[in-house]
Design brief:
This protein is mainly α and 164 residues long. It contains nine helices and no strands. The chain is elongated, with a radius of gyration of 31 Å.
Length: 164
């Protein structure tokens, strides 16, 4: 880092610890505001600490470390795998259910839910020759049909959300 090198050079030539004048000189040399140097100094002045280093002098197998105190709030690897498999299964089921819908309903759901860009009601209406309100009604009808098919298989929409 330039800051560390410049600070070491300044302290060596001035024979004293870095002061406000030195901070201003370093800020000018590296082309940043004085406030930036003041914010960087405490961070760059501290030594690095290993996450694997035992806490409070504890040694040996199983000693607590800084790394062991970090909490991963994400799913466990096992749960991640289960969710991935379930998600793929539910997506496959959803695609199969949409494919069984009549053409209009399938077209609306594909445009609204399956495309990268969610197509607006008005745009779909223009393509289909109907109003945006009619497209909304078709979407609601299609979603109701999907819900009914899910329920017939012993599933509900929350199963789709949880698996996604």
């Amino acid at each position: 880092m330039q800051f560390r090198r410049f600070r070491a050079e300044w302290e060596a030539t001035q024979q004293r610890a870095l002061d406000d004048q030195g901070r201003r000189e370093i800020a000018a040399r590296i082309g940043v505001p004085l406030e930036t140097v003041q914010r960087m100094e405490p961070r760059l002045g501290a030594s690095d600490v290993s996450l694997d280093e035992p806490l409070s002098g504890d040694e040996g197998e199983g000693a607590a470390t800084r790394g062991s105190l970090l909490v991963d709030r994400g799913p466990t690897p096992e749960l991640g795998t289960i969710n991935s498999v379930d998600g793929a299964r539910m997506r496959k089921l959803l695609v199969a259910l949409i494919e069984k819908l009549p053409e209009r309903e399938r077209s609306v759901l594909s445009g609204r839910l399956l495309s990268e860009r969610k197509t607006e009601f008005q745009e779909l209406g223009a393509q289909m020759g109907v109003t945006k309100e009619r497209v909304r009604q078709i979407e609601q009808k299609a979603l109701k049909m999907i819900r009914e098919q899910l329920e017939a298989q012993g599933l509900n929409r929350h199963d789709l959300i949880a698996a996604g």
